[in-house]
Amino acid sequence: MAPDDLDLDLHDLPEPQRLREWMGRIEAVLFASATPVSRRTLAKVLGQGADLDALIAAIQSELDNRPYELAEVAGGWMLRTRAPYAAAVKAARDPGDRLSELADFDVAVLAAIAYNQPITRNALKDIFGKEVGRNLIGRLREMDLVSNGPRSPRPGAPITFVTTDNFLTMFDLTSLRDLPDRDELREAGFIK
Amino acid sequence: MIDMKSTLIQPNLDLPEVPVLPRWITRGSSDLPDEVAFVAGAALSHLDLVLKGQQNALPMGVFCDRLAMRAAMACLKLEGRSDSEAVLRDAVCLTRAGDAYGPSGDMFVLWRKVVHTRLSASKAMDHMIGHFPPHLAKLVSDLNLFRRRDGTPFAQAGAVLSEIISAAPHNETFALMLADVVLSREMGWSYTVPLLGPVVSRGNMHNMISDPSLTPQILQPHVIPACDRALQLANDVLRRAHKITAITPKLRSKAATDAVHVFLTYDAVSPSTMLSPRVFGTKTPMTDRAARRLCDRLVELGVARELTGRSSFRLYGL
Lengths: 192, 318
Hints:
The structure holds two protein chains of two kinds. Chain A is built from nine helices and five strands. By secondary structure, chain A is an alpha+beta fold. In chain A, a hairpin with a 2-residue loop joins strand 1 and strand 2. In chain A, helix 1 crosses helix 3. In chain A, 17% of the residues are buried. In chain B, helix 9 runs antiparallel to helix 10. Chains A and B meet through loops of A and helix 5 and helix 6 of B.
């Protein structure tokens, strides 16, 4: 169904079904996204009369007995497994698989850190022309791909980021020297 | 009659100095392998006498630390990184407990750990190997790298280097480190003096990896400038150490005296982390402010320098 066709207001539906449909859409969009979804994004699938916060709360209570939850994080909302099940998820996971959880931009930031380490968030902002969210860094940290490096000798002693040994393992590198040659990447147009 | 007095060499009693390599060694007048070997041997022997003669006067801590800095920078070049001294110093001094040093910091820290291991201590080699990642420690035991071998110290060092690069070609830094360790051990030096680490280039490394049997010929010519530079550095360090030691009585506090010892042990001193709340290596307390005041005073007295040029996060050293 093309976006133009999506009926946002659902005036044809009786109220209970209307709410159900909106709730369904919110859940579906969150389910399909690897990264937190913002209020603005959700507004694209909901009508004017939709009370997003109420709909979210309704979904959350429906998920009470499920092993995953709808959580509010900086940047929006996301579906994620509940903490008690973390051990089971980890146990089931093939270590290599985790990389496929990373969005394209996550990988771009990871690459920027790998090539420029140690590097501050500010310097990353200069590279990408926009702020690199704390959640993104948090994800990379949680996957043990990135850790804190030396403080930068600037006011406030900002943290720098460096890649970890696990980063090398996950990307099948023996050392940072095995990273693709910067000049080759530049010529191929992958980096500026 | 020959006037004996005028032929006596008058020693310079004002500042200590070690003799640098004589011109016939540094001149580099022959490429013939035998000649190069002879001259390299002479250079090592000269350095040996200087290091042993200066046992008490040359502060091995800061001397080896500064050589470790050079070795780290050279090895980083081999790995395609061209960080300056300032970057390495910052990486090490500005890292908080629990955080990572980053690749350049790691390199400097590793060389320092190697260099500050007392070679005469029992289990010194085991202790040193503990600093390396497990797969390299395994390489040491698999190849029995620290076994006693025949040959001169230089020959043994060369053998260790070629064994490592034959077995594990991309571990150039590790190979250079262990070569320097074995060389220093066999020369009877109390600490590892990085001689080969600072001077071997990527091209040299490449040639040695292609044909490990060429290792002695490739390394030998480097021994002369390596020893020469080490001796120039020794003189520099000696002069600076002498100046700071001379004013220490004026400082009139145990904390200050202990702090001077830190200056004699490390290339760079961060007052807020290495002198405060306690002076490194001692139980002597010192406040952050007192530490910074002391460093500024040492600079005023002309016996230390501020190394970064910054107004904050300052680092000091001889």
